Amino acid sequence: MRKNLFSMALIAMTMLALSACSTKSEDDGVNNFRIKRGTNVSHWLSQSEERGEARLNHIQEDDFARLDSLGFDFVRLPIDEVQFWDENGNKIPEAWELMTNAINWAEKHHLRTIVDLHIIRSHYFNAVNEGNKDANTLFTSEKAQQELINMWYQLSDALKGYSVDSVAYEFMNEPVADDHEQWNQLIAKVHKALREREPRRTLVIGSNRWQGHETMKFLKVPEGDKNIILSFHYYNPMILTHYGAWWTPIGQYTGKVNYPGILVSKEDYEAAPDSIKKELEQYTQVEWNIDKIREQFKDAIEAAKKYDLQLFCGEWGVYEPVDRELAYKWTKDMLTVFDEFNIAWTTWCYDADFGFWDQKKHDFKDKALVDLLMESKGLEKEKEQK
């Protein structure tokens, strides 16, 4: 009898301990929005002139099924104000329906979604580079800031029914404020507004100046909120990742690029047009390799440690015309560093000019790249756990 009583007491104590652990897990308020490897489903609800049938058919359920089967576990879904609201602030229903379709398809195929408000009328990340800096009124206009918050109120109303473990919000892409504190103050405003409506939703917050790695040390996010993911973007060295990109200052360069090592030889530098030599000179002086990438990631890694938050590289990739062997060498080094420091990532992108899928031909345009992306150590660990 005593033995039975002892056994019953032991079982009761064990159940109580398990219950306490479970309660702690629930009460700590941290979501299960766990991400590792993904891609940007871009140039659809963002940065695209497609409308009507063309937009409707551009991305379908089979795209999400494909990403799941390849081994991706989430997507970043860029959206633009001009597609979702007209100039009077009225909703454009078709875009909202397509967004919810995408999230539903993602959920069905075991993919989490980051909804990224990519471009708004008061802020465009490339306005400075295109000589239209005055178009960015967001950081100097209270009205524009309230409009941003109002957009997120409406997005929250539409999306709050989705599990916090399934959908996250990135409330702005690549902010370009003159002063880092302007961005930090706006972060605080939008964070407060969203937390009043959705206390537990995961929020993705990036650094100022195009979400640069070098500005992560200036980023300030509300302390104590563990449902935040810190984000940076990385395309260095631009001479490699954006080789031939007409919209960049370095796009005119047609000489050879080397990686790893000194990217541009003295001979190729001398042969380049004088108009780009100032921009090109930096690539003749420094060796680029995996150690350089590690070095440049340092501030982002330190910021994540400071706040004890997940770190996420929301954009990285190589433009289509880049020599594939160079692209694969750089990609492999990037993946190695991501794995070393447990950095989640989304490639830029799925099917546009940095992508691996050709939507028109409905076929891979770079299957070797996908195979390389899926070779990372983290994926093998996840497979073993499953």
Q: How would you characterize the overall build of this protein?
A:
This protein is of the alpha/beta class and 386 residues long. It has a single domain (31-238, 289-379), classed as Glycosidases (TIM Barrel, Alpha-Beta Barrel), CATH 3.20.20. It has 15 helices and twelve strands. It has helices at residues 2-27, 52-58, 61-70, 81-84, 93-108, 142-159, 180-197, 208-211, 238-241, 266-271, 274-280, 290-307, 324-340, 367-373, 377-385; strands spanning 37-40, 74-80, 112-119, 167-170, 203-206, 228-233, 261-262, 287-288, 310-315, 344-347, 357-358, 363-364. The strands form three sheets. It has an eight-stranded parallel β-barrel. Strand 9, helix 13 (324-340) and strand 10 form a beta-alpha-beta unit. The protein is globular. The protein starts with a helix and ends with a helix. Residues 1-26 and 379-386 have low confidence and may be disordered.
Q: What descriptive keywords fit this protein?
A:
386 residues; alpha/beta; TIM Barrel; 8-stranded parallel β-barrel; 12 strands
List the helices and strands and how they pair.
Elements: H1 2-27, E1 37-40, H2 52-58, H3 61-70, E2 74-80, H4 81-84, H5 93-108, E3 112-119, H6 142-159, E4 167-170, H7 180-197, E5 203-206, H8 208-211, E6 228-233, H9 238-241, E7 261-262, H10 266-271, H11 274-280, E8 287-288, H12 290-307, E9 310-315, H13 324-340, E10 344-347, E11 357-358, E12 363-364, H14 367-373, H15 377-385
